[in-house]
Specification:
homodimer; 13 helices; 434 Repressor (Amino-terminal Domain); six-stranded mixed sheet; 3 domains; alpha/beta; about 350 residues; DNA-binding
Amino acid sequence: MVRKVTLQDLADRLGVARSTVSRALRGDPQIGVDTRARVQRLAGELDYHPNAAARALTRRRAGVVGLVLPRTSRFVFSNPYFSELLEGISSVAEPAELPILVSAAVRPDYVGWLRAGRVDGLIVLGSSLEGEELRLLETLAAKGSPVVSIHAPSAPTSLVTVTSDEGPGLLGACEHLALLGHEHVAVVTGPPTSHYARARAAGWKGASARVGMTTLRTVHGDDTFASGAAAARTLLAERTAATAWLLGNDLMAFGALQALADAGVRVPGDVAVVGFDDVMPAAVVGLSTVHQGVRTLGEEAMRALHALLRSATPQPIPLVTRFVPRRTSAPSGLAPPTAARAAEGGPFETPVTRTR
Amino acid sequence: MVRKVTLQDLADRLGVARSTVSRALRGDPQIGVDTRARVQRLAGELDYHPNAAARALTRRRAGVVGLVLPRTSRFVFSNPYFSELLEGISSVAEPAELPILVSAAVRPDYVGWLRAGRVDGLIVLGSSLEGEELRLLETLAAKGSPVVSIHAPSAPTSLVTVTSDEGPGLLGACEHLALLGHEHVAVVTGPPTSHYARARAAGWKGASARVGMTTLRTVHGDDTFASGAAAARTLLAERTAATAWLLGNDLMAFGALQALADAGVRVPGDVAVVGFDDVMPAAVVGLSTVHQGVRTLGEEAMRALHALLRSATPQPIPLVTRFVPRRTSAPSGLAPPTAARAAEGGPFETPVTRTR
DNA sequence: GAATTGTGAGCGCTCACAATT
DNA sequence: GAATTGTGAGCGCTCACAATT
């Protein structure tokens, strides 16, 4: 490994002071034009890059943000939800020159990251944050640490939270199902340890009731593909009379679809299936689902964090959901079986769904 | 923001030297048992975390690794391939306490990251690395920088590369198709700027020829969903006689499936479709594809990088691919249309496919 | 002499202030 | 006095070596 070039090396070669080089490289206007030119030319020649650790130490800023995904299941990364979230975050972080440190540890040490100055701020996926852990995060935020949560339980705290209003999407789905003649639904929930999953289940039931449908059965899953398949098998074994199945997320819906296909049950002929998230594969499979703009969620979170880092007050824009009808809830026989015809376009379309 | 606790604070409170505290915290055996206990207790009480920048500066190691995904398309993150790769990398990096800095910039400055000491080593997705950029990476590696590439063109360089042998998978797919009676195939390639995509196209053609099938047409895509759909529309418009379509990756295959469904063409009745990668949605959709163990690829890459960081010589285990027959290449009418029955199990099964 | 602790320099920057033209 | 450059301390650690019991 070649010894790295330092500020002092440049200064020695040019016969100026370290600080002059430092200023010239940062484009400080109080440095003479010719000096600056000389410095920058030499820096280019020697391929000089300021040492990040030294800079971080003096500036007391790491220039890095952390993305924390508490691993509630093995499937954090496998869920396309994550990819889309990261893409949104990245699209805002990149122009701001803020590299992203990711963690999906079982018990992520974000406090350590912050305390050690490894990152200047955090975005935490808060879908399953509760109790002590949530309080810890709130305390951090209250003490002035730049922390933004996605989907953390909303409460009157100083923790900036980005989330979306699920109401419109859930209601839209249920109205659609009621119109198709469904009267009985089954709800498949995410892990009961997640406040977010519980809210979703309650939301599905509330929306169903509002359009006159009855929830016959609630099956608990854990947001994974496998649990969706298992839930479907349970419902089939019970010979449920529910003709519409409302899932806590798309991943479980995919699992349910596979189990239904394996059992030879027709979708949407025998059972209608609706998911939540509208992740990429949903359009491919033709899954009817509730679009929540995961990418936009990531963008908003990063924008909010960036504001906090500049000591500004973030104004996260409230996102709204909407129902996206596709094959799995179409009137039986209307669409060809494998048609993933999504009226809304392809899977990568990420419409900006904002209010105000 | 509360002022952070430093080593000096601890030392002052305990009436010992900074270095003693430093050693005690690192568990240095030459520190007395009681001193160590006192130090560690106080550190716990004050929630002390050593400053990462200061530590990195003195140790000359950042304790961070970089993951670079040159963004050849908008869809790096949207491709589930990425999630699975990151999951593999993360599963090895986490126990080694190496946080991961990710970048998917259009022109990622990995040299800068390395030069600035922001990361100690890099994993670079090299599918589209060529020419000058590839040479730059090779130079870095030759000079002793810990760099591991995934899918970089193999050549006798010092650049450690993790990849998989595509032969068995491609041949397996073609044998399967030939057995089903297919005689004419069409190949849809990834971007021509990618050596990896070109090798794939050549591989499909070679394998087809070997089992006696003829490649009637080659259509160029760019590895995205949309380009797969566009390629399918092109083939349909041309009324190709090819009954088996071989795609450069799963994402394009998903696009092709959607376009075929939209056109009312039956799969596999009229056309058989085969992808490559075996990413999560493949099993859901029932896409016949070549499994390449993306997760394992990530694990191997991280293991190799970890070896380099310890100045060891990495021994990446060669991975092999295998064909996974599913619905889209099944004998017409054999499987129910929506059956995503994968003989190999669900989408999250990631069998370790290793030789030796 | 072995076990334990302290001293002091240095890692490579930035920033306030002083000094020069 | 305005424009430009230099001085020196300090950020918070670690490590070689010295000093103490």
